[in-house]
From TrEMBL:
Entries under SUPFAM superfamilies matching the protein: Radical SAM enzymes
Name this polypeptide is given: Radical SAM protein
GO MF terms held by the record: iron-sulfur cluster binding; metal ion binding; oxidoreductase activity
Keyword ATP-binding: no
Keyword Iron carried by entry: yes
Cofactor needs: [4Fe-4S] cluster
Entry-linked Gene3D superfamilies: Aldolase class I (3.20.20.70)
InterPro entries: Aldolase_TIM, rSAM, rSAM_sf, Sulphatase_maturase_rSAM
Record key words, sorted: Iron, Iron-sulfur, Metal-binding, S-adenosyl-L-methionine
Pfam family, one: Radical_SAM
Natural source organism: Aliidiomarina maris
Domain Radical SAM core: residue ranges: 2-232
Amino acid sequence: MALQLDTALIKTASRCNYDCSYCYVYQGKDTSWRAQPKRMGLDVIDSLVDRLIHQANAQAAGFAIVLHGGEPLLLGLENLTILVKKLREKLDSQRYPISLQTNGALLNKEFLDLFSKEKVSVSVSIDGDQGANDIARVDVNGKTTFSKTIKGIQALRSHTDSEFLFAGTLSVIQPSIPAKITYDFLKSIGSPNMDFLMQDGNHDRLPQGKSSFKSTEYGDWLCELFECYTSDSSPVPIRFFDDIVRLILGDSGTKEGQGTDPYGILIFETDGEIRKNDTLRSSFDGADFFTSRWNVRDTKISEVLSSKEFSEYARMQIPICESCNSCEYLSVCGGGMPLYRWSESNGYDSPSVYCHDHMKIIRSVKERLLLEGVECT
């Protein structure tokens, strides 16, 4: 049975106004972005919307739509208005939530009024206070972007529909900055939800700040963050931990990289090409290509989802190495994201480069639940 579409990630722009040093697109192995149109054209928008509406009618479950980039707001107000209005004409906000991931620099009242009217929530990428943020999140001239991002967050918070619009913050972990500083700062700027990502890396290229496969710098940082979270009398929800708790208690996860359920994730590039999860780009040049090089101009999404090639891609989310399949934490960690398992010698047939970090934080969360008298699976 073919997987259904869970997430449609739309690359509205293939360029960015920031130049983050850890970016898996512009600083990674992949160079295909150079050949992409800088912005999605109206002809591609029309084809993409038609394909998404067709897929909505073809499957029982709804799916999430994520506007992404580069920086998605570089598409411009006019064309972004056309895109979201066309989607909302046929796809309601309950079954087909639309969200936008932005660095915040271009957010203004005009964009926010559009998103409020068409029910598009906004998450802002920021790694913490200026000390944390300036480690990697700089502009094309190597200068700080911190004040621009903060200005965007302030615009979000001051909008009359901010309670809906501001979905939260997404932060890449900077292990050299104490977790408490990051947590306290994000709470101070009014983030209603926090989520955190490990830095990209694999067995050939260790993540920044990680000294070896067995080291636990990120696990240590996450344990510190978990202590901040659980000791706060009025905590801000942190999806990373909430998903771990859910999985420990025997429920399903909500995203790739945790739990053992596969997800139907497709990327739609500015020229209409349909690709695999773009985080794979950090593995090797072309890692996110389907051999068939499908495009929304001439291919239905259902044809992609029912193909053998898509099935093979979906199976990549499930680890195949012996150490993962015999691990007591597999049902929670899920082997981590495929990009973390990569090496030239073994392909994706290895445990995550964050294996020991995952074990440390899962163990810590489980011990806390048991201490609180919660029965764990």
